[in-house]
Design goal:
five-stranded mixed beta sheet, 89 residues, Ubiquitin-like (UB roll), 1 helix
């Protein structure tokens, strides 16, 4: 995939972080698999990953959560759904 910004360099596999904000909810999600532009750093998550992030954020908003830092977990080999874990104990 080519980067749509600037020089349209070929993206490479990598990890990124994203800040999702809505009303009083602020979520930082780390270690998201994405395609990264080596020139400008723009990150592109695939459709399934992006949809999962938005579903999880919506669940947290409905639960009344306000500020959390999460790490993205990859699907298990036996086909379990994508999920998150909390860095807070």
């Amino acid at each position: 995939m080519k980067c749509v910004l600037r020089d349209q360099a070929e993206t490479v596999p990598g990890m990124t972080s994203v800040l999702l904000e809505r009303g009083h909810l602020s979520l930082t999600v780390n270690n998201i698999p994405a395609r990264i532009c080596p020139n400008c750093g723009e990150a592109y998550a695939d459709e399934a990953v992006a949809a999962n992030l938005l579903r999880q954020a919506e669940k947290m908003a409905r639960a009344g959560m306000q500020a959390f830092n999460f790490g993205y977990t990859l699907p298990r080999l036996h086909g379990a759904a994508l999920g998150f874990y909390s860095n807070k104990q």
